[in-house]
Write a structure and sequence with these properties.
By secondary structure, this protein is of the alpha+beta class. The chain folds into 2 domains: 58 residues, lambda repressor-like DNA-binding domains (434 Repressor (Amino-terminal Domain)); 103 residues, Sandwich (Jelly Rolls), CATH 2.60.120. The protein is built from 5 helices and 10 strands; from the N terminus they run αααααββββββββββ. Strand 6 and strand 7 form a beta hairpin. Helix 2 crosses helix 4. The two termini are 29 Å apart. 30% of the residues are buried.
Length: 183
């Protein structure tokens, strides 16, 4: 199984070339430096979630298309087989369980967040909807000016084309699923 960085590098380069974009053009569209994009395409970078979202939005493709790999007609996924996207020295682990692509309009993420950690999510493409279900801990989710607290077994659906943020509001590891539906 390829590492997530290798999958991302291949996909960004392939999509950029399909859209006939130079690295400089993609840099202007995404706000990510040309040198960072080149590093990512070579498989040498370890891009943050924010950087990947900027690249996806700049190319006007679903985030999933950057992290997907070829699929069989069925697929059993084990977290132990997935290289998570890690931020802040493992305070956030994002496992791309079922990545989507240009033909599949949704993706599934398994996310672990350490106590006291949170992050702001960039706005997604217009019409994107997120479905979040908490399995352990307590999630504080801010959507625009509204704040929601979700505990074990609670879910929320919301339009993700506006600013939103996630925060672990408990003293234990927060675990939740995030299903992202792209228009």
């Amino acid at each position: 199984m390829d590492t997530i960085n290798l999958i991302v590098s291949r996909n960004i380069k392939r999509i950029r070339q399909e859209k006939d974009l130079s690295l400089e053009e993609l840099s202007k569209l995404s706000g990510v430096s040309k040198s960072m994009l080149a590093q990512i395409e070579r498989g040498n970078g370890n891009p943050s979630l924010s950087t990947l979202w900027k690249v996806a939005n700049g190319m006007m493709v679903p985030f999933n298309s950057l992290v997907s790999q070829p699929r069989a007609p069925y697929e059993v996924v084990r977290l132990s087989d997935i290289d998570p996207i890690i931020e802040e020295s493992t305070k956030l682990k994002n496992y791309v369980v079922f990545p989507g692509d240009e033909n599949q309009r949704f993706s599934v993420y398994y996310i672990e967040v350490q106590p006291g950690y949170g992050w702001d999510s960039d706005t997604h493409m217009r019409g994107t909807i997120e479905f979040v279900t908490v399995f352990y801990g307590k999630l504080q989710l801010k959507i625009g000016e509204d704040i929601f607290y979700l505990g074990c077994g609670e879910s929320i659906r919301f339009k993700a084309d506006s600013r939103h943020s996630y925060y672990n509001a408990s003293n234990e590891t927060l675990i939740f699923h995030n299903i992202l539906f792209n228009p």
